[in-house]
Amino acid sequence: MSPATPELISPRSHRVLAARRLAKRNFRGKERLFLAEGPQAVREAAGHRAGDAATLVELFATLEAAERYADIVGEARDAGARVHLASEQVIADISTTVTPQGLVGVCRFLDTPFDEVLRARPRLVALLANVRDPGNAGTVLRCADAAGAEAVVLTDASVDVYNPKAVRASVGSLFHLPVAVGVPVEQAVDGLRAAGVRIVAADGAGDRDLDDELDKGTMGGPTAWVFGNEAWGLPEETRALTDAVVRVPIHGKAESLNLATAAAVCLYASARAQRAPGGCRSVTGN
Predict the structure, then answer these.
(1) What's the mean pLDDT in 221-230?
(2) Antiparallel, parallel or unpaired: β 33-37 and 49-50
(3) pLDDT exceeds 50 at position 179
(4) For 23-47, what is each residue's pLDDT tens digit?
(5) Distances in Å between the alpha carbon of 239 and those of 1, 37, 130, 185?
(6) How far is residue 154's CA from residue 130's CA, in Å, rounded to a whole number?
(7) What CA–CA distance (Å, rounded) separates 258 from 244?
(8) Taking residues 107-117, what's their average pLDDT?
């Protein structure tokens, strides 16, 4: 860190106040900016670009964090971000975590238009319909990334993907794959189906069993998994839009799986089937 870089001691600094406001959805939407906290998220943000624009625009770091993560600070500078030394109090004021790690980035929105998602002809998609918990949304996004999905789509009734808890739960995956937001569920289903994608709802009350579907070989084609609210699942009108409603089998005594765990099982089941002989990825390649 250059000795010429000023330390932002006062929590009343204009830049600190502007960053702190991004914890609220209405300010994020107005500024089209969000917070990325911690070294992993900041590193991913520093390496991400949307077209010609760098995603990371500003970085606040304590002196200790700037020294410990000098490589990340260097990447942020190289990306053109404004880097500020900040007191621990300032970082605590900006951060939404109980124990901040000393790095908080301000990032541009990076969602992808839904039409662009469709043009890419995705083979595996996670569609979040009425998912309200930001931790669940971020974790499903992380699972989709790990399973090799080409996109995540959040309907207009779902949580804000730029909620700090959702960003943290994605553990950097928000910066790895296209994310479309605010899409009405009917539009999402119609668009994906027109792009040749089978629409499968994940629901504990589904009339089809995931194991049976895998045995029958129905999961090897392009698939969009629809995940609903953890508390009350998918409404009947949403299930009616899909091509199949599939349950994850419970072989033990557990009553159910939480949303993120069920999503991981479903997405990996599709990823495995698609890579098997005859699956869409074995046919088209990567």
Answers:
(1) 93
(2) unpaired
(3) yes
(4) 999 999 999 999 999 999 999 999 9
(5) 54, 36, 12, 11
(6) 8
(7) 20
(8) 96
At residue 181, what is the residue type? V
Evaluate whether 111 touches 36 at the Cβ level (below 8 Å). Answer: no
Q: How many CB atoms lie within 10 A of CB 17?
A: 13
Query: In whole numbers, what is the pLDDT of the chain averaged over residues?
Result: 92
What single letter denotes the amino acid at residue 12? R
What is the residue type of 122? Answer: P
Residue 157: what residue type?
A: A
Provide the pLDDT for residue 78. Answer: 94
Which among 179, 240, 252 is positioned nearest to 207, based on CA atoms? 240
Cα 12 to the chain's mean position, in Å?
A: 31
Q: Please provide the DSSP assignment of the chain as one string.
A: --TTSPEE--TT-HHHHHHHGGGSHHHHHHHTEEEEESHHHHHHHHT-EETTEESEEEEEE-HHHHHHTHHHHHHHHHTT-EEEEE-HHHHHHH--SSS--SEEEEEE-----HHHHHHT--SEEEEESS---HHHHHHHHHHHHHHT-SEEEEETTSPPTTSHHHHHHHTTGGGTS-EEEEE-HHHHHHHHHHTTPEEEEE-TT-SEEHHHHHHHT-SSS-EEEEE-BTTTB--HHHHTTSSEEEE----SS-S---HHHHHHHHHHHHHHHHHSTTSHHHHH--
pLDDT tens by residue, 48-67? 988 788 999 999 999 999 99
Q: Which of 72, 93, 102, 74 is nearest to 19 (CA)?
A: 93
CA distance 39 to 74: 12
Nearest-Å Rg of the Cα atoms of the chain is 21
Strand-pairing partners, residue 278, are none
